[in-house]
Amino acid sequence: MTTTNLENLQFRLAARPVGMVKDSDWQKVSEPLRELAEGEVQIKTQYLSLDPAMRGWMNDAKSYIRPVAIGEVMRAGGIGEVVASKSPKFAVGDIVSGGLGVQTHWTGAADDKSAALYKVDTRLAPATTWLNTLGMPGMTAYFGLLESGQPKAGETVVVSGAAGAVGQTVGQVAKQLGCRVVGIAGGKAKCDFVVNELGFDACIDYKEGSVRDGLKEHCPKGVDVYFDNVGGEILDTVLTRINMKARIVICGAISQYNNTTAVKGPANYLSLLVNRARMEGIVVFDYADRYHLGVAALAGWLKEGKIKSKEDVVDGIENFPQALNMLFDGKNFGKLVLKVA
Amino acid sequence: MTTTNLENLQFRLAARPVGMVKDSDWQKVSEPLRELAEGEVQIKTQYLSLDPAMRGWMNDAKSYIRPVAIGEVMRAGGIGEVVASKSPKFAVGDIVSGGLGVQTHWTGAADDKSAALYKVDTRLAPATTWLNTLGMPGMTAYFGLLESGQPKAGETVVVSGAAGAVGQTVGQVAKQLGCRVVGIAGGKAKCDFVVNELGFDACIDYKEGSVRDGLKEHCPKGVDVYFDNVGGEILDTVLTRINMKARIVICGAISQYNNTTAVKGPANYLSLLVNRARMEGIVVFDYADRYHLGVAALAGWLKEGKIKSKEDVVDGIENFPQALNMLFDGKNFGKLVLKVA
């Protein structure tokens, strides 16, 4: 086996944030790399995935996954290179994806359940794409849209956070299925990108003018599927424009994650009754046994140039705290990735 | 043909109510009965169905049915006897159910679409049961529970408005399907009735103690199906206790119908995400082509004594305004029916 003589630089959760995450909520720790035990591997992190869901993991609340403990390395998905191995499962030089955490090196059992490591083929797509379209955001988009949204050709699909990690793939997949696709995003640059580069039919800039007017203009036949990444006022507005038997996919509520007061419930939820519509929550892990099918479909479309994978790469693990907050300020443009090595 | 020499006494909508309906929102009108044209029938109203949905029909808002116009006879379902007929469809003496409106006599085409008249067999069940378990509330309960709630034997079903028209049948049908059934109702008398007479496993009195504690006590394995007739705080509380893949059926929101401020949206709706659960709106008219199947199933259980139909009958059409408001004060005990003749 080979070892490196580097330290492992980590960001650990120092305090449970109230509202937006502050620098003091993090503890930066450097510790020596340890020797491997039998069955273990050591991975040098290349890229980390920064996701809105991470904010939820920092709260001490019952959710679909246990909270990160105080003092624990912050949970994060990532991609890295195997630099040492005492397991037949991975060889030095393999590129693997999994729950590496916010640290420069991950060391542990090759079959660790919470890391859930798997090899990726960077000849098929670059590493950052494996954290985006071919990673959790892509799987969330693909299975959430198909299984819960159930769009049919000719229907109108609206997606919020349209330039973000999940939204970009939701809209592009819906276009492949023959839907009219309208995005909602913040700012002219994102909206132009979504229409001109990703091929959405239209994009509503929620920072400029009214979402209600935008929906009236761009969804003249109403909304059949709404894929919601943001919650709050935008969800409430879309509820007023849904069609009979509409499907609302609740994927996230980024507008509400840093609330210090109660989450704003959708006051227009009785539109579900009037329209015999449904609202359903999805979590990507439920589709784990079929990820390979999602990867195959999305990789095929990527290869054919039918869809694109757009990442926003921030360089340097030391910038992790500021980079994470970009998500909640809407500053990232595409899937946010932190380059570590 | 036979005619009566009576006047037709009607309640017409005089003004759109703000908040609770006031007496001045109604206009009581008496007009002479008219002669029938070819194809028409005249029906003498026996009983009228008073339903929470009627409050919504009085608002000038887009909904699943057009609002009642100012000056129009208030819409209501009812049962009556054919007292005159120039149609081969109905004979004098037939008992029919349909949209008779709040009036002593309905006169119109036998095939009028909005009245949607159909003969009922009062040997099978009394007239009031045809407005309850075998009428719209029963159909709402039966199809809403089965189609949207999809309860399985052994699951826990919670229903609010448990002693009301829809709730009583939801719970009893769920018991027939082998579910654990917990009602939510206001007051000890209703709760006792629901448990002792209707056979629910438990009933939580929302006027006495905390619904949250009641759910913890009576739903130790969580909530798989919640059939919501009330909305508001109770919906929000149940959302904190749902299981993975739970189904919430949105049938109504009686707590919100007289709001003068915005409807309270369910602040805990992100529980849908955590639990991959869904919330779906239902409207009974969607099942119209299968009402006969619902009637057959429910009439069978009624005949075998396996379920009961509980009505609260108020006497006299002149008491219509006060009787309607009983629904929103929670004063009715069972399906509210107005006896007209």
UniProtKB/TrEMBL annotation, chains A, B:
Keyword Oxidoreductase belongs to the record: yes
Q: Which Gene3D superfamilies match?
A: Medium-chain alcohol dehydrogenases, catalytic domain, NAD(P)-binding Rossmann-like Domain
Q: Which UniProt keywords apply?
A: Oxidoreductase
Q: Where is the Enoyl reductase (ER) domain?
A: 19-338
**UniProt keyword Oxidoreductase present:** yes
Q: Please give the Gene Ontology molecular function terms for this protein.
A: oxidoreductase activity, acting on the CH-CH group of donors, NAD or NADP as acceptor
Entry superkingdom: Bacteria
Instruction: Note the InterPro entries from the entry.
Output: ADH-like_C, ADH_N_2, ER, GroES-like_sf, MDR_fam, NAD(P)-bd_dom_sf
Q: What is the recorded name of this protein?
A: Enoyl reductase (ER) domain-containing protein
**Where does this protein come from, organism-wise?**
Pseudoduganella namucuonensis
Lineage of this protein's species? Answer: Bacteria, Pseudomonadati, Pseudomonadota, Betaproteobacteria, Burkholderiales
